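Deliverable D4.2, example record:
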Amino acid sequence: MGPRLSVSSNDHVVIVGAGFGGIAAAKQLSSYRIPYTLIDIKYAFHHNMGALRASVQEGFAKKTFIPYDLTFKANFKQGKVIDIDLQDQGVIMENGEVIRYSYLILATGSTGPFPGKLIESVSRETAIQMYEDLVKEIQVAETIVIVGGGLAGVELAAEIKTDYPMKEVTLIHSTYILGDSEVLPSVRRGVKEILVNKGVQLLLGHKVNNLTELVLNKAQKDIKVVTDKGKEIIADMVTCCTGIKINSSAYVNALRDNLTEHDAIIVDEHLNVRGMKVVFAIGDCAHVNEHKSAYTAEFQANTCVKNIIHSLKHEPMELYKPGAPYMMVTMGRNDGIGQMCGCNVGKMIVTYVKSKDLLVKTSWKKMGQKMPK
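Output generated by the structure prediction step:
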């Protein structure tokens, strides 16, 4: 536990978004005994690194959803934030409730299609069942098309081919760069080599023209996928891994003058929203020149809480120093590639550190709960 700070009855931190950055900030505030409220639309923390394996491996989904209330108790509030009153320092909930803050941390993350993302106000049990239902659909399908060759798409393709090497998997991507464009070219080449070695069919430089007309994540015969270059693929199932964007709905109205063209929040070197000394932003929603990941979100959360403490003590704030890209791309339980400190790291390290269990035990430990078997 951190040292107890002298706080007034009016001191109260509100965290909007309980992803990796949000829960890291909440745990830090709790250790310093600073009053806070953690808000999220979901009932359970989603260990998103495990979402794609949960789509393929039966029984894995229950390890990826960790109840918020058991960890944060009365400090957690489930609900949707629809706006922020900057003048009176209040977070406005969808049900009309207003939660007052003396400091505000925006950690709203990003949104995207299921199964790579799950941003819905469903119970933990329902969320788990959604993934278990997808597992069954993938088991039935013999030919699968994955649209999108970013990290989610390549990892899902690798997970499917690891568990079901005889299934025909085609990955369609609009560019010729697979994975993350910010990582080393050698890492991107390694991702492509792993997919090819696993037997994934790659259709690069193509966009799917009829995606909005297709039924996604359901096994059915003779689904026709058509690309902008006239290529037609007949499949039993189509999954979409495109369209990841910043989740800005909570703040887009209040902060419209402090947003980039993609709705990321412009922050200063202390992670304060530009011109606002009591409002911070961290993680995917913050415009920081740094690779977006759970790892960096947690580092930003630590600096953010330190600066709140400095503010409470009337001390100078710390600068946040972005780090070099740190990434481990899991390609099934027994393979992967990544980079650390600007250097390529291979299969052995990635498999040992991350690929085997996707760090699910780490999240359960951080939440102070026991992971189900």
